[in-house]
Amino acid sequence: MGTKKRPARRGKAPQWFTRLGPDAQLALLDDPYRELTEPLVTALGPDAENVVGRVYTAHERSTRYYLAPRAAVELVSARDRVRGWWGRLSPLHRVIVLNNRHGSLPAALGGGVRATGGILRLRRKRRLTPTPMAEIFLEREARARR
User: Fold this and answer.
1) Labelling 36: which of 65, 71, 106, 131 has CA 20 to 30 A away?
2) Looking at the whole model, is its pTM more than 0.85?
3) What CA–CA distance (Å, rounded) separates 85 from 11?
4) Structural domain of residue 79, as residue ranges?
């Protein structure tokens, strides 16, 4: 019997999402309402019980898997929060953030941690690093620019 998962707070990445591989994260980030492949359902492991919904089509005699509505809405909320932050960055700041997405940024660039709305985290030596949802969002943006 699975345990009930708590929803992500204030647009943070759901825990089940952070346990997926980057390709699965990117696919779901692009379309949280997409049909899930069996390997993706398997990758969710025990979380699948709480975040996957099924649709059985009698005339096709097939079962299709999707994120459960609550899980999809939770993911959309987290994604849209990062998307809003991204949209408020200047083009120059976007380039700086993308070029340093795997490292850290000077705290001064973010205008303080509160100015980033929790998208970036303050680390030692006054450096900022992206949250897990921001990391995958930035990877998506970087791949789109290639």
Assistant:
1) 131
2) no
3) 12
4) 15-144
